[in-house]
């Protein structure tokens, strides 16, 4: 008894002496439920020269009550050189309060009492501090961000001391502090801490006839923190034996499912997991993985059955939308694509807000609904269910937002409208799409052909109609492209093409010449060829426009070029720049490079690379060629 009282005195006399100088409170030994008033004297603190001060405090209790540690502000009233404040009565679970002081206008200016904060412990009726009044202080340092948010860090030596004192005064609370105390020793990193921590783990677990899952978990984490992985794994195995339905077992089986390469065994393992752990937090992610697995294994009928068995909360409707759309694009499993999209639409109506959605769920639901309806409409269209497709597309098309519409969707919408005799109803939206550049060339051709067949119209009127729709957009695009035009001399060249013909710049004088520098090994070059073919086709009847596909930087036998063109019969003229002289003279730094020479023999346009967008490539080259032709006619 004498040693306990001596220890108690040592613990509180020194802090109380410091408190008398700059912080004191009343009553001196507050009990639970009592309001506490305090006086703070900042003269010897970092806030000695500040005048606008406030207090910030947290309540604390046992480790499992750390939700009490929510910072609150207490108003300070100045009285001469001191400040006074009052804390409201605390809840019965509270075992103490910790405070810091700061400049209310400059919150980064703080007094945290050299990292120990200012403490008001709760006492019992006899005046003795209650259990957790000391250890709870350490919990504030280790289990909350209170000190960190004040721009300070805890002292690991002080934290360890607090834990030691708590367990000496109240041995019965050791189960709540042993792991935190040993973790504090690890952070101290004093000489010999490893064996001391190891001995602490072993002695504690040995004192527990049947360690709990939490104790085994804590022990494993402590072993891991000192690098003893075999013992950490051994405790985890004990944890799984004690709690075969616990988180470790769930993680192991979840990982086994993820790593399983045999699709049949993977399905069996998933079904067993879902049966054994129906409420597992790991199940939703596994369900998404299995949904994707059915699709990747082309088990589309199985996918439908699987999705139908899931609750709305377990279904990723965006994944269903993507799958249905891909199936419809590829014209495979079309009835199943239709059903997948329908299932997604039905699920979305009752689906709770997913954790991944941070914004307005109602707005996000509308976006997801349009994605699903788009996939649904395409699946119907590909099955030639035109009436249903047209109705579905009307739910996708937004006449108020044509500038953000998708050109492919616009084209499919108009096709379904044509097939159901609703072309006139769809016409205003499609015209707007053409005007803002959201219509693919094929859609514009379809619109023109339809317009030409209307009573009183001709092909010439249809051409004029389409040109009028595009005129403003074309003018804007040409204005932008003019900023990219250059004006450099076009070096003379004479090359032999794959057919043995001589191709010379002098013979092309007066024409618009498009040079596409490429090589068979260049992926972007080859990827751009369909777009380049379309661009060439637009001017195939124009004798004043010439496309040349100059093979350069090939670095191999010419037969490779012949083989490529034989395998890919593009209608291209292919001059061979075997020495790269023409490429160098035209400042080709990388391939593909497109160069356009005007009728006056000057280089007017140069573009390196391929964006991957064929429509943009075709449109830009077409406009450049048309601009240069217009310049010649002036």
TrEMBL record:
Keyword list (alphabetical) reads: Isomerase, Redox-active center, Signal
* MF (Gene Ontology): antioxidant activity; isomerase activity; oxidoreductase activity
Report whether Isomerase shows up as a keyword of the record.
Answer: yes
Q: What Pfam families does this protein map onto?
A: AhpC-TSA
Q: Which residues form the Thioredoxin domain?
A: 484-633
Highest taxon listed in the record's lineage: Bacteria
InterPro entries named among the record's database cross-references = AhpC/TSA, Thioredoxin-like_sf, Thioredoxin_CS, Thioredoxin_domain, Thioredoxin_ResA/DsbE_sf
According to the UniProt entry, where is the signal peptide?
1-21
Question: What name is this protein filed under?
Answer: Thiol-disulfide isomerase or thioredoxin
What organism does the record attribute this protein to? Answer: Spirosoma endophyticum
């Amino acid at each position: 008894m004498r040693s306990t009282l001596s220890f108690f005195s040592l613990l509180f006399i020194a802090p109380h002496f410091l408190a008398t100088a700059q912080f004191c409170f009343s009553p001196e030994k507050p009990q639970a439920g009592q309001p506490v008033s305090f006086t703070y004297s900042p003269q010897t603190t970092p806030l000695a020269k500040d005048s606008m001060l406030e207090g910030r405090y947290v309540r604390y209790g046992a480790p499992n009550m750390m939700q009490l540690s929510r910072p609150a502000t207490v108003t300070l009233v100045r009285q001469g050189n001191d400040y006074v404040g009052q804390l409201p009565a605390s809840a019965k679970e509270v075992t103490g309060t910790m405070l810091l002081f700061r400049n209310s206008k400059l919150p980064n200016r703080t007094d945290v009492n050299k990292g120990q904060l200012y403490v008001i412990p709760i006492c019992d009726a006899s005046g003795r501090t209650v259990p957790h009044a000391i250890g709870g202080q350490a919990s504030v340092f280790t289990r909350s961000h209170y000190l960190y948010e004040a721009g300070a860090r805890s002292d690991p030596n002080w934290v360890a001391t607090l834990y030691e004192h708590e367990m000496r005064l109240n041995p019965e609370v050791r189960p709540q502090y042993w792991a935190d105390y040993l973790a504090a020793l690890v952070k101290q990193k004093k000489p010999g801490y490893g064996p001391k921590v190891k001995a602490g783990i072993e002695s504690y677990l040995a004192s527990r006839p049947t360690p709990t899952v939490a104790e085994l978990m804590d022990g494993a984490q402590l072993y891991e923190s000192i690098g003893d992985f075999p013992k950490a794994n051994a405790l985890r195995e004990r944890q799984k034996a004690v709690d075969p339905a616990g988180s470790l077992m769930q993680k192991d089986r979840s990982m086994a499912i993820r790593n399983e390469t045999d699709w049949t065994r993977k399905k069996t393992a998933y079904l067993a997991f879902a049966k054994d752990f129906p409420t597992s937090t790991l199940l939703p992610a596994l369900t998404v993985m299995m949904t994707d697995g059915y699709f990747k294994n082309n088990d589309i009928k199985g996918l439908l059955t699987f999705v139908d068995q899931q609750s709305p909360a377990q279904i990723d409707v965006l994944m269903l939308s993507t799958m249905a759309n891909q199936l419809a694009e590829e014209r495979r499993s079309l009835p199943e694509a239709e059903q997948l999209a329908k299932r997604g639409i039905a699920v979305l109506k009752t689906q709770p807000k997913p954790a991944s959605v941070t914004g307005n769920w109602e707005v996000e639901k509308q976006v997801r609904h349009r994605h699903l309806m788009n996939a649904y409409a395409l699946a119907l269209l590909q099955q030639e269910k035109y009436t249903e497709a047209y109705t579905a597309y009307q739910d996708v098309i937004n006449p108020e937002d044509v500038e953000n519409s998708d050109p492919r969707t616009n084209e499919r919408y108009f096709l379904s409208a044509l097939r159901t005799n609703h072309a006139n109803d769809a016409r205003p939206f499609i015209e707007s799409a053409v005007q803002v550049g959201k219509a693919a060339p094929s859609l514009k051709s379809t619109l023109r052909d339809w317009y030409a067949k209307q009573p009183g119209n001709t092909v010439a009127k249809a051409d004029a109609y389409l040109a009028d729709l595009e005129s403003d957009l074309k003018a804007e695009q040409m204005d932008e492209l003019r900023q990219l035009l250059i004006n450099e001399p076009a070096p003379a060249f004479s090359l032999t093409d794959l057919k043995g013909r001589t191709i010379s710049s002098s013979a092309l004088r007066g024409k618009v010449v498009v040079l596409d520098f490429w090589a068979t090994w260049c992926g972007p070059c080859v990827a751009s060829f369909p777009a380049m073919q379309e661009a060439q086709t637009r001017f195939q009847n124009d004798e004043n426009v010439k496309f040349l596909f100059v093979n350069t930087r090939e670095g191999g036998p010419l037969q490779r070029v012949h083989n490529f063109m034989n395998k890919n019969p593009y209608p291209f003229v292919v001059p061979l720049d075997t020495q790269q002289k023409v490429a160098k003279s035209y400042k080709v730094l990388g391939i593909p490079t497109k160069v356009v020479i005007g009728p006056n023999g000057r280089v007017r346009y140069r573009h390196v690379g391929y964006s991957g967008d064929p429509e943009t490539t075709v449109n830009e080259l077409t406009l450049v060629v048309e601009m240069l032709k217009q310049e010649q006619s002036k």
